[in-house]
Amino acid sequence: EADIYQTPRYLVIGTGKKITLECSQTMGHDKMYWYQQDPGMELHLIHYSYGVNSTEKGDLSSESTVSRIRTEHFPLTLESARPSHTSQYLCASSESGTGPSAQHFGDGTRLSIL
Amino acid sequence: GQNIDQPTEMTATEGAIVQINCTYQTSGFNGLFWYQQHAGEAPTFLSYNVLDGLEEKGRFSSFLSRSKGYSYLLLKELQMKDSASYLCASMDSNYQLIWGAGTKLIIKP
Q1: How far, in Å, CA of A88 to CA of A67, rounded?
Q2: Nearest-angstrom CA–CA distance, B101 and B85
Q3: Is B57 on the interface with A (CB under 8 A)?
Q4: pLDDT along chain A (114 residues), means of 10
Q5: Distance from CA of A88 to the nearest CA of B (A)
Q6: B104 contacts chain A (CB < 8 A)
Q7: How sure is the predictor about B37, in pLDDT bands with cuts at 50, 70 and 90?
Q8: Band of pLDDT at residue B95, cut at 50, 70 and 90
Q9: In a 3-state reduction of DSSP, which class is residue B80?
Q10: How far apart are CA B79 and CA B92, in angstroms?
């Protein structure tokens, strides 16, 4: 079972603030992902990375950025938070290799922008 | 376009069997995943099918028909702890997951 950790679990913050959501995994997975999920809705891919110094945008443009300086760490930054960013953010990782592999998820960060 | 369809909600009785259906349309196909998600928690991996047929794993089984773009998750001997959302996700030609909105399964005693 993958060990993947997200902090904070919950965050309530005002509009305009810069926010960084942390995600770390201890399994040595090369592939990491950030998703946004609203209640009862599907997961939307925001960003993904296939390894150090590799980052790509997903289908959902959420005015966020990511970095992948170390294999185990994949933080997501919102430069200026808006109420529309209120959602749950899920980080996931999967094994290296070119074929399909299951994604393992962290517990998520529930973000509320006032 | 890419699309995943699954029922929004289903209700079943403890001890019974329930089948959750999923139809998919994706650009390319590299397999079909099922995940379980309890309220307020992260999704957890249940099963993966890439070939036609039934894969059995304890009380849970998953079926795939590639020609029909169809899968189902079968849950037997339902327990109260099985109350959760069940997410269907298809992997496309770029190995990205296209997710359904999930089926909320309610188990009644």
Answers
A1: 20
A2: 9
A3: no
A4: 86 95 95 93 93 90 88 96 94 84 93 95
A5: 9
A6: yes
A7: very high
A8: confident
A9: helix
A10: 33
